[in-house]
Amino acid sequence: MVLLDTMVLSELRKRSRNPGLISWIASLPTNDLFVSVVSIGEIQRGIEMKRNQDPAFARSLADWLDRVLMSYQERSLPIDLSTVRRWGRLGAALGHRGADLMVAATALQRALTVATRNLRGTNWKRLARSRSYTIAAVSEP
């Protein structure tokens, strides 16, 4: 089962999407794909930051996010107390406290693999790699 991080999820909305990523995701059972509420928050933050600069684009992003939420309604993973505590341990061990570590903690808590484009600052073990995404398992430091 795969947790799509924010960068991979965002790639799926682009007009010129990477065909390798699209075919890989299409090859997986839909029920094996998950998103984190952290990614939803990061995307919402981006929408709000664009709202004054480019309202039409922000509305388009908001509509897309609404469709994502409908599609992943049962597969949107919350941050619970055990996940937050794991995030705290990871952040202390790695000296990093970003949102991607919350996604990593969620994956660890639920024994998921992460599809990401960002391997910085986290103990990712690359399982596979293409030009557009990396399949990674996160490990404890």
Could you explain the architecture of this structure?
The chain has 141 residues and is an alpha/beta fold. It has a single domain, classed as Rossmann fold (3-Layer(aba) Sandwich), CATH 3.40.50.1010. The protein is built from 6 helices and 6 strands. It has helices at 6-11, 19-26, 37-50, 55-71, 81-94, 99-110; strands at residues 2-4, 33-36, 76-77, 113-116, 124-129, 134-138. It has a 6-stranded mixed sheet. Helix 3 runs antiparallel to helix 4 (55-71) and helix 5 packs across helix 6 (99-110). The radius of gyration is 15 Å and the shape is globular.
Architecture blueprint of SSEs:
Blueprint: E1 2-4, H1 6-11, H2 19-26, E2 33-36, H3 37-50, H4 55-71, E3 76-77, H5 81-94, H6 99-110, E4 113-116, E5 124-129, E6 134-138
Parallel strand pairs: 1-2, 1-4, 2-3
Antiparallel strand pairs: 4-6, 5-6
- Side by side, the strands of the main sheet go 3-2-1-4-6-5
Mean residue pLDDT? 83
Specify the number of helices.
6
Beta-strand percentage? Answer: 15-25%
Summarize the structure.
The chain is of the alpha/beta class. The protein is 50% helix and 17% strand. Strands 3-2-1-4-6-5 form a six-stranded mixed sheet.
List keywords for this structure.
50% helix; Rossmann fold; 6-stranded mixed β-sheet; single chain; 141 residues; globular; 6 helices; alpha/beta
